[in-house]
């Protein structure tokens, strides 16, 4: 079976339909359908079902995708690396992070590292699935709210910050110098959901210890989403204090949250394998900026 056919099967199952697969692959829907029909003949499996007029994956296609997921992931990675080679980014610094930290501590560290490296380091930033990227050796360095406490991965404490509240300056609570859990009672709160990759998510731990976990009305992945919602008066964003350095809070009120536990940012890399020079320089900036 050709690689293109495997790629079509993978996209069809992951995205849930032939139209979605065509859009994801940048080809015509008829090309996707033709490739799937040829794969059915070659594998002697039914891969496509018609449900309410739509072509959708059969149970056999779902099971094939489940069993062959490592191969499909490797295939997607190979295509991605081919793209990177084609645009001259084969030798690059690869970083995985969660969105909440990508807006705050990562950009100045990248800027400083590139200055130290005379702007020679190409950089690729990947979001989410941080532990998976590390385990698959797809990134050099990762940042999360960790720690991961995973064998083969090293956790490095970068810095800590209390939770803060971000709200529109016209909000009644903006008149307070500080806010508390009791002050926030009955207010619509915006915050991050669990990052899904840490054994001990320090952000969620802080929310839980201050008693706000079950009071979050709107969950976001990105800090800019939280700040934009606060700016529109939708609610009060409860985020880590790292956000203050990002510029996203300009024009908004930022208030300390009394008795807030600390949120800790961690860097992670594979243990036992030395970091290359560019990754070491970036790590120095991440640690140094927290001093």
Write structural notes for this entry.
The protein has 291 residues and is α/β, with parallel strands linked by helices. It folds into three domains: 3-86, Orthogonal Bundle (Arc Repressor Mutant, subunit A), CATH 1.10.10.10; 92-155 and 265-288, Periplasmic binding protein-like II (D-Maltodextrin-Binding Protein, domain 2); 161-262, Periplasmic binding protein-like II (D-Maltodextrin-Binding Protein, domain 2, 3-Layer(aba) Sandwich). The chain is built from eleven helices and eleven strands. The chain has helices spanning 3-15, 18-25, 29-43, 59-67, 69-86, 99-102, 106-116, 130-135, 202-209, 223-231, 277-288, and strands spanning 48-51, 54-57, 92-97, 122-127, 141-144, 153-168, 189-192, 216-220, 236-240, 252-256, 262-270. The longest helix has 18 residues, at 69-86.
Q: Give Rg in angstroms.
A: 23 Å
Helical fraction equals: 25-40%
The parts where pLDDT drops under 50 for at least 5 residues are none
**Structural class, from secondary structure content?**
alpha/beta
How many extended strands? 11
The CATH superfamily label of the largest domain reads Periplasmic binding protein-like II
The major sheet is characterized as: 9 strands, mixed
Give the end-to-end Cα distance, rounded to a whole number of Å: 55 Å
CATH class of the largest domain: Alpha Beta
Give structural attributes.
D-Maltodextrin-Binding Protein, domain 2; 291 residues; 3 domains; 23% strand; alpha/beta; 11 strands; two-stranded antiparallel sheet; transcription
């Amino acid at each position: 079976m050709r690689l293109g056919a495997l790629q079509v099967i993978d996209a069809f199952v992951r995205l849930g339909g032939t139209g979605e697969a065509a859009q994801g692959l940048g080809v015509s829907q008829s090309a996707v359908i033709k490739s799937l029909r040829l794969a059915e003949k070659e594998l002697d499996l039914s891969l496509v079902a018609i449900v309410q007029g739509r072509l959708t994956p059969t149970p056999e296609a779902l099971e094939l995708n489940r069993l062959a997921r490592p191969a499909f992931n490797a295939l997607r990675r190979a295509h991605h690396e081919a793209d990177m080679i084609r645009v001259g980014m084969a030798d690059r610094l690869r970083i995985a992070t969660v969105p909440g930290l990508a807006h705050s501590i990562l950009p100045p560290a990248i800027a400083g590292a590139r200055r130290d490296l005379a702007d020679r380091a190409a950089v690729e930033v990947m979001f989410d699935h941080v532990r998976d990227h590390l385990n698959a050796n797809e990134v050099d360095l990762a940042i999360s709210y960790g720690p991961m406490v995973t064998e083969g991965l090293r956790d490095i404490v970068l810095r800590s910050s209390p939770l803060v509240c971000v709200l529109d300056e016209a909000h009644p609570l903006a008149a307070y110098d500080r806010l508390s859990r009791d002050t926030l009672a009955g207010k619509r709160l915006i915050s991050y959901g669990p990052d899904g990759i840490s054994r001990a998510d320090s952000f969620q731990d802080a929310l839980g210890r201050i008693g706000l976990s079950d009071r979050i009305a709107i969950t976001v992945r990105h800090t800019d989403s939280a700040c934009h919602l606060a700016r529109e008066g939708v609610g009060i964003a409860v985020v880590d204090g790292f956000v203050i350095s990002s510029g996203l809070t300009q024009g908004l009120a930022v208030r300390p949250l009394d008795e807030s536990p600390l949120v800790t940012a961690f860097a992670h890399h594979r243990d036992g394998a030395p970091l290359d020079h560019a990754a070491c320089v970036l790590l120095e900036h991440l640690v140094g900026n927290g001093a």
